[in-house]
Design goal:
By secondary structure, the chain is of the alpha/beta class. The chain has 15 helices and 13 strands. Strands 3-9-8-7-6-4-5 form a 7-stranded mixed β-sheet, sandwiched between helices. It has a 3-stranded mixed β-sheet with strand order 1-2-11. A 3-stranded antiparallel β-sheet has the order 10-13-12.
Length: 400
């Protein structure tokens, strides 16, 4: 039996390579940072990590992780409700709740697990989930696990969202489900309008803020703070694996009763080992750091403003916005996926590490290179990357 399966898999893998859809994994031989070493490629500038605040290798983070390892050990060898809860878990939940402005928080090993675990306990056959069409894959999969009605609204289309809310008026409960920042486009959900519609149609609001927690809003709390709706969002999921240190871990944060219920019902929480103590010790240290200074956030936003302005002036097609995700689009080219992949490979030759994205990560015909800013980037890093983009862009006839 495996022989026929193997042949089919080989054919499909070859087709992915031919179409430019095959996702290569480059191996780093250094720690994460603005400059990394790639096996076979030497030292390159890193513009494709979610290291927004530049904290993945920050001495304060590494020291906190080391102290936590010494104090609390490597792992728990258990789930939370058996014997896998330490004081560091409760400390981290309290720190996250205080930072996000919520009642309580439940920890997961990844935000993907959080999004897989949150919907099924809360939404049954009599309920309706109303997700944005461009939500993250983890939300899509979490919604699929439920028996609730699913009514997907067109991306950021508030008229369509209201139409779906009216269609779900007979549901016991309605949940509007959205990313705070959409990871491929870098655009930000219109949370004030979403919350207005939720209140008008008696719905709950769920926001995945993975690409915002730590640096969006006046105090870096996320899109709900940015849009001044901190008391109007019911459930927040987010990650510790991006701006908050970059290792692993995620959470659901919100109303105390929802969190307590998820502790009893969320399967990825109940049946997965506890989050490693080192992750939580470092996360608490990051949150403490972000309450003391705005310097990393300020530098990140200045880098973002500069790079966005310069890459557009160079002639590239960039989705407008203010987020550190800067999507350089190839959608106007016939073989967009192949071109995005080739462009990323040439940039690596020029010492700039980025990744081309194409279907199924993004819709067909919308291939791109997602350039990601970090507070750890210096102006010299940005200028070298821009020079490489211009050179490769002219070489491949992407710009004049």
């Amino acid at each position: 039996m495996y022989g026929s399966l193997r042949d089919e898999l080989l054919r499909e893998l070859e087709e992915m390579r031919r179409a430019g859809l095959y996702k290569e994994e480059r191996v780093l031989t250094s720690r994460q940072g603005p400059v990394v070493t790639v096996r076979g490629g030497g030292e390159v500038l890193n513009f494709c990590a979610n290291n927004y605040l530049g904290l993945t290798s920050h001495p304060r983070v590494l020291q906190a992780a080391a102290r936590t390892l010494e104090r609390w050990g490597y792992g728990l060898s258990s789930v939370r409700f058996i014997c896998g809860t330490q004081e560091i878990h409760k400390e981290a939940e309290g720190a996250v709740s205080s930072f996000l402005g919520t009642d309580d928080t439940i920890l997961f090993n990844a935000c993907f697990d959080a999004n897989l675990g949150v919907f099924e306990p809360l939404a049954g056959p009599d309920d309706a989930l109303i997700p944005d069409s461009l939500n993250h894959a983890s939300i899509i999969d979490g919604v699929r696990l439920t028996k609730a009605r699913r009514l997907i609204y067109e991306h950021s289309d508030m008229a369509d969202l209201e139409a779906k809310l009216r269609e779900a008026s007979d549901a016991r409960r309605r949940f509007i489900v959205t990313d705070g920042v959409f990871s491929m486009d870098g655009d930000i959900a219109d949370l004030p309008a979403i919350c207005d519609l939720a209140e008008k149609h008696d719905a709950l609001v769920f926001v995945d803020d993975s690409h915002a927690t730590g640096f969006m809003g006046p105090n870096g709390r996320g899109t709900h703070e940015l849009h001044d709706v901190m008391d109007r969002v019911d459930i927040i999921s987010t990650t510790f694996g991006k701006a908050l240190g970059g290792a692993a871990g995620g959470c659901i944060s919100g109303h105390a009763e929802i969190v307590e219920y998820l502790r009893q019902k969320a399967r990825p929480y109940l049946f997965s080992n506890s989050v490693p103590p080192t992750v939580l010790g470092a996360t608490v240290a990051v949150i403490d750091f972000l309450t003391e200074t705005t310097e990393p956030r300020d530098r990140l936003m200045e880098n973002t403003r500069y790079f966005r302005s310069e890459i557009v002036d160079a002639g590239f097609d960039v989705i407008p916005g203010s987020h550190p995700i800067v999507p350089v689009m190839f959608s106007r080219f016939e073989e967009d996926a192949r071109l995005a992949t080739a462009f990323a490979r040439r940039l690596l030759d020029e010492g700039v590490y980025v990744t081309g994205f194409s279907y199924p990560v993004v819709p067909r015909g919308q291939a791109r290179i997602r350039v990601q800013m970090s507070a750890a980037h210096g102006r010299e890093h940005l200028d070298r990357a821009l020079a490489a983009f211009r050179a490769v862009g002219r070489e491949l006839d992407v710009i004049q």
